[in-house]
Design brief:
mainly alpha; globular; about 0% strand; about 80% helix
Length: about 300
């Protein structure tokens, strides 16, 4: 068990490299990864179950202790990235399926990877976990509503179907994880130690499956989608930081808000796009998963060196 936990930590720390490696493999040799497309929703549910196992009552104490900071983070998450996605689609005149995919990933809640990057950045981990948890719990209503509002101009959007999907692949597994944590008690610690391995393997399979299913379209439009993903993520990270600065948050919380805004639950985006739109609509989420882990690691290196200066 100790060796498995060590392997889990290693894989978790090298997450971005595994995602990048298998995305490249799936692009050049898609056939072995195509059967995994039928497992995307199940794998995301497994990740959300793991999130439920790790959630504790203390993760929500920040909501009561610092409600304005949490509310700012949640509001920024559901305002900045969706607005940026819509604006980029308008300015660049993206094709409908790609536009919907970009908007979809922009409307997703924060991902658990943001908590890890916040820790590496010497940010406020408790605040990060609270914002991620609250945005995830609000996602069944907020995400379909935002997608319907912003993406309907490109393709028909079924709010009820999206709501049902997010309840099934986000809320239900998290609830089961919470129940399992209560039943397992202290024994859950052994399970939690290998969760990074399970999560990385699941995300890697999801990304590889999406890339394999859309290999021809990526070859045709991949550079355009990658450029939009990089712009979207970079602007989200930057605007998130300066929004926190505008509201007078200290440096650690500015780092946290930047990361929470810029890093999305791209696995959820890929699952929803695959289930409700098309494989091509899932490509922005897959490429976002590759890129935001790389950009997050680079940003964490910079943030760790960012001192507490009055003009920081």
């Amino acid at each position: 068990m100790r060796a498995l936990a060590a392997l889990s930590r290693f894989v978790g720390n090298t997450f971005a490299l595994w995602v990048l490696l298998f995305a490249v493999l799936a692009f050049f040799a898609p056939a072995p990864f195509l059967p995994a497309t039928g497992w995307i929703v199940t794998l995301l549910g497994l990740i959300m179950f793991g999130m439920g196992l790790t959630l504790k009552g203390s993760d929500f104490t920040e909501v009561a202790r610092r409600p304005l900071w949490v509310a700012l983070g949640v509001g920024a998450q559901f305002l900045i990235m969706p607005a940026l996605a819509w604006l980029l689609c308008q300015l660049l005149g993206l094709p409908p399926e790609i536009a919907v995919g970009v908007i979809l990933v922009g409307c997703c809640p924060g991902g658990t990877a943001s908590n890890v990057i916040t820790w590496f950045s010497r940010g406020d981990v408790a605040l990060s976990v609270s914002i991620t948890a609250v945005t995830t719990l609000l996602a069944p209503l907020a995400t379909p509503a935002l997608i319907w509002l912003l993406a309907s101009a490109w393709l028909p959007v079924n709010f009820a179907a999206l709501f049902t999907s997010i309840v099934q692949i986000v809320l239900l597994p998290i609830a089961l994880g919470l129940i399992a944590r209560r039943l397992l008690g202290a024994r859950v610690r052994h399970v939690v130690e290998i969760l990074p391995l399970v999560s990385v393997v699941s995300i890697v399979i999801i990304v590889a499956a999406v890339v394999a299913a859309s290999q021809a379209k990526i070859a045709e439009s991949g550079l355009l989608i990658m450029a939009v993903v990089i712009l979207h993520n970079s602007l989200g990270l930057g605007i998130g930081y300066f929004a926190a600065r505008l509201f007078g948050l200290p440096l650690a919380q500015r780092k946290t808000l930047s990361i929470e805004v810029g890093m999305q639950n791209s696995g959820l985006g890929a699952a929803l796009a695959s289930a409700h739109f098309s494989p091509l609509a899932a490509v922005p989420s897959a490429l976002f998963s590759v890129w935001h882990n790389l950009s997050g690691a680079l940003l964490a290196t910079f943030y760790r060196r960012l001192g507490e200066k009055p003009d920081a």
